[in-house]
Hints:
Helix content: 40-55%
Oligomer: single chain
Low-confidence stretches: none
Number of strands: 2
Amino acid sequence: MTPKLMIEPSYWLETGIKLEKVNNLQLFKFTDELQARSDELLERSKSGLITSDEKAELDGISELAQIFTYANSVLVAESRWFPSGLVK
């Protein structure tokens, strides 16, 4: 595995994430601002105009997105095992 330079995903914990209710579950989501920044960086990357600092930022945001995907999938799976009417 090759190490790469990125901004740590924990950098956005206080300002870049929110919980959003989806089908009675609280799921992790990006704030509108972080989602817009991610979209902007992806476009810059696709066009070949991304700087090394922006690439490090995009890599950190992408890592955070992977963490959210995993955490949200665990929350969804557990909700199927323990429907709200059965857990006290």
